[in-house]
Inverse folding.
């Protein structure tokens, strides 16, 4: 299926691993030229090289911290007029005790999960409006819609981001600039693999057993975690020509774990 975005330019922040990597791969498969930012250089270069070889696409790595003004300037200098903006970041630590969250953790999470994507949108939306075409997709978290103490850091800041993006989406929709959010639950990513592998080692079990136990405890109807590339596919769809009448939406991708009619 041709999504009609071949030749477009995209910035994907936090794209060296996990759900960000899946977004880069999905866009590159559609012929999009992708500018990928991340903080860890060796992983970023490896990811971009792998995806370029697999897809034949033009993938530009940008080693920068997109939560800082200097990092954002470096990314936008490499791609000042993107047609597509995708934002994500490494998830903050789990918070089983809300009282243990430090001021430093709050500030870091606000900078990377809220202020950074807001500043990027402020920087690129005017150009998209002028060109009468643009797509913004923020990969947030299901905890933005369904709060839980264990995701207090992640969910609260990204709930604010979702609120902001939906408000802005109403302003720019008439210019064919569509802004949407993805709210993923548990997926097999490098971060999740590390967390659950460490838990398995401490308990003398296996990664698969810990995933199964979590899925049971949290009543995930699919009884498993999702694959990262499943999220990337929806990123590409929301960035496509077929999304020209879809805006201000926040799609939950969680295997049915949350319960809501809408």
């Amino acid at each position: 299926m041709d999504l009609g975005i071949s030749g477009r330019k995209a910035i994907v922040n936090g794209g060296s691993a996990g759900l960000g990597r899946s977004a880069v791969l999905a866009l590159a498969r559609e012929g999009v030229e992708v500018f990928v930012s991340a903080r860890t250089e060796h992983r970023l270069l490896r990811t971009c090289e792998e995806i370029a070889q697999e897809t034949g696409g033009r993938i530009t790595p940008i080693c920068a911290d997109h939560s800082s003004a200097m990092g954002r300037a470096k990314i936008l200098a490499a791609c000042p007029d993107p047609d597509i903006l995708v934002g994500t970041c490494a998830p903050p630590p789990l918070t089983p005790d809300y009282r243990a969250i430090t001021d430093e953790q709050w500030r870091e999470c606000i900078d990377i999960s809220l202020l950074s994507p807001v500043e990027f949108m402020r920087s690129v939306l005017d150009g998209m409006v002028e060109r009468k075409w643009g797509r913004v997709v923020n990969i947030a978290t299901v905890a933005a819609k369904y709060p839980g103490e264990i995701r207090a850091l992640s969910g609260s800041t990204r709930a604010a981001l979702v609120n902001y993006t939906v408000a802005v989406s109403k302003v720019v929709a008439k210019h064919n600039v569509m802004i949407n959010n993805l709210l993923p639950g548990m997926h097999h990513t490098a971060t999740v693999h590390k967390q659950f592998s460490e838990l398995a080692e401490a308990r003398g079990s296996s990664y698969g057993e810990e995933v199964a136990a979590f899925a049971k405890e949290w009543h995930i109807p699919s009884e498993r975690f999702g694959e990262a590339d499943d999220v990337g596919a929806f990123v590409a769809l929301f960035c496509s020509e077929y999304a020209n009448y879809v805006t201000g939406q926040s799609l939950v991708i969680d295997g049915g774990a949350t319960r809501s009619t809408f």
User: Anything to note?
Assistant: Residues 103-131 form the longest helix (29 residues). The chain has a mean pLDDT of 96. The two ends are 28 Å apart (CA to CA). The first strand starts at residue 9 and ends at 13.
